[in-house]
Specification:
This protein has one domain: Rossmann fold (3-Layer(aba) Sandwich), CATH 3.40.50.2300. Helices cover 34% and strands 22% of the residues. The protein is built from four helices and seven strands; from the N terminus they run E-H-E-H-E-E-E-H-E-E-H. A hairpin with a 2-residue loop joins strand 4 and strand 5.
């Protein structure tokens, strides 16, 4: 499925996704690419806590977390200078985010190569 190289090795990721199966699928994809999952947050408050208390290199944010937009989480990541991407089925909603044009995005359903490329771009690789 992937090249033998592990493009995400040495990187730890925060996954913010309210759909449990989707969150775990993202975790599996990251592991298959050599990365590790620092934490999976299934809601806004849990993610806010993780951003403040968990060590990670990059985040994957679902835009819609049970009816709450994740943009304040994106702003918190920006303040901490932690790269992130959006992963969403609500592509048009991202346009509301002020830095939408500079932020990576992967549309659902997720393709492994799209996640890989978006994360590597966010990490500056």
């Amino acid at each position: 499925m992937f090249e033998r190289s592990q493009p995400l090795s040495r990187y730890r990721f925060l996954i913010v996704e309210d759909e449990i199966l989707q969150a775990h699928r993202l975790g599996v994809l990251i592991a298959e690419m050599g990365g590790s999952v620092a934490e999976i947050s299934y809601g806004f408050e849990q993610a806010h806590h993780a951003i403040s208390n968990v060590t990670f290199d990059c985040a994957i944010l679902d835009v819609n977390l049970g009816g709450t937009l994740s943009f304040p989480l994106a702003e918190a990541l920006d303040r901490k200078q932690i790269p992130f991407i959006f992963c969403t089925a609500y592509a048009d909603a991202i346009d509301v985010y002020p830095r939408a044009s500079q932020t990576g995005r992967v549309d659902k359903p997720v393709r492994p190569s799209h996640i890989r490329d978006a994360l590597l771009t966010a990490l500056g690789k």
